[in-house]
């Protein structure tokens, strides 16, 4: 089974332009507690490099593109996010990295919990230990 769970959102645009609506428990498969967005990322900068103990997230590049790497400790997969109508669902203990942000990239992330530093696993070795412990 692929590590990458793609969500396709319905385009509601018309001749005036584009529109996408994301509803809790309809388009986003969890209760939404937080939204954040990453933008104006400097060239050559990569972000992420962590996993979460208990968090679900949906990531969408609303403008521009970036590359997402997901790693469950056994497999490592990459996807390019380059569409405002395509998101990925990240759940479970998965290491994530974001690379190759385009200059115009606005990466929006919808999360199931408020920000909690204690939920982060920021060391890859700790991540592997936790995953291997089951
Ligand atoms: P960080 O998790 O390092 O970002 P990324 O994983 O995208 O590289 O977050 C950068 C800073 O922002 C860090 O000090 C924590 C803070 N932050 C919040 O306060 N709330 C949030 O929802 C997020 C995602 C980060």
Offer a few descriptive terms:
134 residues; 10 strands; 1 helix; five-stranded antiparallel beta sheet; mainly beta; binds thymidine-5'-diphosphate; 7% helix
Brief account:
By secondary structure, this protein is mainly β. The chain is built from one helix and ten strands, in the order ββββββββββα.
Descriptive account of the structure:
Strand 5 (66-71) and strand 6 (76-81) form a beta hairpin. The protein is built from one helix and ten strands. The longest helix is centred in the C-terminal third of the chain and has 9 residues, at 124-132. It has 134 residues and is mainly beta. Helix content is 7%, strand content 40%. The chain has one helix at 124-132; strands at residues 5-8, 34-39, 47-52, 57-63, 66-71, 76-81, 86-90, 95-99, 106-111, 120-121. The mean pLDDT is 97. Thymidine-5'-diphosphate binds at residues 34, 36, 38, 47-48, 50, 115.
Largest sheet, strands/sense/barrel: 5 strands, antiparallel
Give the overall shape: globular
The largest beta-sheet arranges its strands as 1-7-4-9-2
Count the beta strands.
Answer: 10
Radius of gyration: 15 Å
Structural class of the helices, strands and pairings?
A: mainly beta
List the helices and strands in order: EEEEEEEEEEH
- What small molecules accompany the polymer chains? thymidine-5'-diphosphate
Low-confidence stretches: none
SS field, number of helical segments:
1
Mean pLDDT equals 97
Please give the alpha-carbon distance between the first and last residues.
18 Å
Share in β-strands = 35-45%
- Report helical residue fraction: under 10%
């Amino acid at each position: 089974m692929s590590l990458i769970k793609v969500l396709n959102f319905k385009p509601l645009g018309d001749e005036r332009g584009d529109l996408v609506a994301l509803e809790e428990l309809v388009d986003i498969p969890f209760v939404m507690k937080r939204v954040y967005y990453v933008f104006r990322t400097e060239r050559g900068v990569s972000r992420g490099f962590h996993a979460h103990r208990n968090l679900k997230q949906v990531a969408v590049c609303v403008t521009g593109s970036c590359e997402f790497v997901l790693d469950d400790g056994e497999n490592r997969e990459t996807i390019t996010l380059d569409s405002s109508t395509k998101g990925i669902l990240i759940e479970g203990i998965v290491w994530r990295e974001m690379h190759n942000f385009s200059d115009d990239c606005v990466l929006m992330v919808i999360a199931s919990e408020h920000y909690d530093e204690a939920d982060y696993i920021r060391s890859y070795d700790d991540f592997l230990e936790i995953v291997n412990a089951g």
